[in-house]
Amino acid sequence: MLRRMVTIRRFEEEVKRLYRAGEITGAIHLYIGQEAVAVGACAALRDDDVVTSTHRPHGHCIAKVWDLKRTMAEMMGRATGLSGGFGGSMHQFCRAKGFLGGNGIVGGGIGIAAGAAFAAQYRGTSQVTVCFFSDGASNQGVLQECLNVAALWSLPLILLCENNRYAATTPVGKSTSRADIAPRAEPFGLPWAICDGNDVLDVHRAVAAAVARARRGRGATFIEAKTYRAEPHCGIIADGRDPAELAAWRSPTHDPILRFESRLLEDGILSAEGLQAVHEAVEADLREAVEFARRSPWPALAAASREGSAVHA
């Protein structure tokens, strides 16, 4: 879990650097500060379980697919990328590992996730679907429709709201009438839970319980993970938030990686040397991923057609 969280953090920091250097183009939405949600949730899943993501998909993609080279290649628009170089930041996709991609439409993954959960139920498999979405997406009507369908049909679906406190630049208090979002599941007769989204083990416990329930045929669960987006909404928007607020959430008290590292050290699970080894391994993986992407070819125009494309393998 620690290695994957650190990998996501460093991947995002490197994406930010490459974006500013012009090696990554298009829109980027960084996941820094929310690593514990993706890692804690995906650690409870099997390879054949399904995940749908958002316009901020890199962390979910790494946590579920764990293919740093092809993820970075997609960011850099290369043919070896997860979507053949055509998707870029918001449209990573890997069917083999159950990652049904990011989505440029806020809340767009919710309906897709309900469909994937229904497909698993219809086929009679024990697969579950986890749908990541944000506090902003929680105000889209599609959520209410899918809550109703999930309850009505007892779908194996976990709706996981990452309440990172901002919808683009709008604080959650100005867009959402109540502080807690998860209780919206109650009128539909669905169980719900709230977890500390900056505590990877708390996220894992909540999601693992919901996954076990879904595999038993008991239906859907709504989980809200309280977290914080430490970066601006996207690469071209300045961060107008209070610097003191940003500093507080990046402190060892709140930062999900620093908190977890401290806990592992204090409990004697990891030594200082072991911690250094984790970070060194991540740096080596990241260097290899960037070099792999740089050496990879650009996609051929013919590959954009359905017949010529090897995308989504």
Short note summarizing the structure:
The protein contains eleven helices and seven strands. The chain is of the alpha/beta class and 313 residues long.
Would you write up a description of this structure?
- Strand 2, helix 6 and strand 3 form a beta-alpha-beta unit.
- The protein is α/β, with parallel strands linked by helices and 313 residues long.
- It has a single domain, classed as 3-Layer(aba) Sandwich (Rossmann fold).
- The strands form two sheets. Strands 1-2-3-7-6 form a five-stranded parallel beta sheet, sandwiched between helices.
- It is built from eleven helices and seven strands.
- The model has no long low-confidence stretch (mean pLDDT 95).
- The longest helix has 24 residues.
What is the assigned CATH homologous superfamily? Thiamin diphosphate (ThDP)-binding fold, Pyr/PP domains
CATH topology value: Rossmann fold
The beta-strand count equals 7
The sequence of SSEs as H and E is HHEHHHEHEEEHEHEHHH
Low-confidence stretches: none
Radius of gyration, whole Å: 19 Å
Number of domains: 1
* Major pleated sheet: 5 strands, parallel
Looking at the overall shape, the CATH architecture is 3-Layer(aba) Sandwich
Helix content: 40-55%
Distance between the termini: 26 Å
| The level-1 CATH class | Alpha Beta
Secondary-structure map with pairings?
Blueprint: H1 2-20, H2 35-42, E1 50-52, H3 58-65, H4 68-75, H5 108-123, E2 129-134, H6 141-153, E3 157-163, E4 166-167, E5 170-171, H7 172-175, E6 192-196, H8 200-215, E7 221-226, H9 243-249, H10 256-266, H11 272-295
Parallel strand pairs: 1-2, 2-3, 3-7, 6-7
Antiparallel strand pairs: 4-5
